[in-house]
Design a protein that fits this description.
The strands form 4 sheets. Strands 8, 9, 10, 11, 12, 13, 14, 15, 16, 17 and 20 form an 11-stranded antiparallel sheet that branches. A 3-stranded antiparallel sheet has the order 1-2-5, with no helix packed on it. A 3-stranded antiparallel sheet has the order 4-3-6, with no helix packed on it. The chain has about 270 residues and is mainly beta. The chain folds into 2 domains: about 70 residues; about 150 residues, Glucose Permease (Domain IIA) (Distorted Sandwich). It has no helices and 20 strands.
Length: about 270
């Protein structure tokens, strides 16, 4: 009997580099068929883990089967799925999503005191804090009012896993993504920090770079869904189904401090 295996792989991931030294190298999910078996593999050439979220569809099933596979750093041809044409006659296909980081080992270090995301000697006002009514509903996000081209610094050390800096629009409410130009950094505890609304071509780092706490990473701007020049920062814990916004404390004179609406903070 003829049996059809329908394979429709779909990749969602952060934009990746071209494989040069110091760049994020492209992760891959692909399949190979030999005899009665089709096997799906994943490659992770980077220095940090990735998570592959698989969606497996069978024509006689009412729901997709979701599975998660964590791929260790520098791992190649890791088998994550196999299908037998002979034993499994049901028509089948798969989709997938790649998440940079390990969704099962993302445990925030609540004792960590983050550095303010700008240079020493500067102070800026928080225009919207945690659960702000304008655009931070349900989120532990912070907006700092600052002029364009202010030097933005890493709040914590980690690996740069995403850089977008090609958007020119000052205020985009249509085709420009909400985040505008942005940078994402993966921390050692598998949490991530995002820095949003950066200036056009304002990035000072590239994907794959290791950055230190306090290192200059970008110039602030007013891109994306932004009414006025400001910097939006937020830290997330990774979970299989979502990124979970989490609270942070900042080092203000050696004291762990939760930043408040309309407060002005410097160091």
């Amino acid at each position: 009997m003829f049996r059809l295996l329908l394979l429709l792989p779909f990749l969602w991931s952060f934009p990746s580099g071209n494989g040069d030294i110091g760049m994020v190298k492209v992760e891959k999910v692909y399949h190979q068929t030999q005899g009665e078996w089709t096997r799906v593999y994943a490659d992770n050439p980077n220095s940090y883990p990735i998570t592959v979220r698989l969606y497996c569809y069978y024509e006689d099933a009412t729901e997709a089967i979701r599975e998660y596979r964590v791929i260790a750093p520098y791992t190649f041809k890791k088998e994550i799925l196999k299908h037998s044409h002979r034993l499994q006659a049901t028509r089948f296909h798969y989709d997938f999503r790649i998440i940079r980081g390990d969704v099962y080992n993302s445990h925030h270090d609540d004792s960590y005191m983050y550095q303010l995301p700008y240079l020493s000697g500067c102070s800026f006002r928080v225009s919207q804090g945690y659960f702000g009514g304008y655009s931070h509903q349900g989120r532990y996000a912070l907006d700092f009012v600052m002029p364009r081209n202010t030097h933005v610094c890493a709040m914590r050390e980690g690996v740069v896993i995403k850089v977008e800096d090609h958007y020119k629009e000052v205020r985009g409410w249509g085709h420009v993504p909400r985040m505008g130009n942005n940078i994402t950094i993966l921390h050692s505890d598998n949490t991530i920090a995002t820095y949003l609304h950066l200036n056009h071509k304002g990035s000072m780092v590239k994907e794959g770079d290791y950055v230190f706490r306090g290192q200059e990473i970008a110039l602030s701007g007013n891109t994306g869904w932004s009414m006025n020049p400001h910097l939006h920062v937020e830290v997330f814990r990774l979970e299989p189904a979502a990124y979970v916004s989490i609270p942070t404390q900042f080092d203000i004179g050696g004291v762990p401090t939760t930043l408040r609406d309309e407060g002005r903070y410097g160091w």
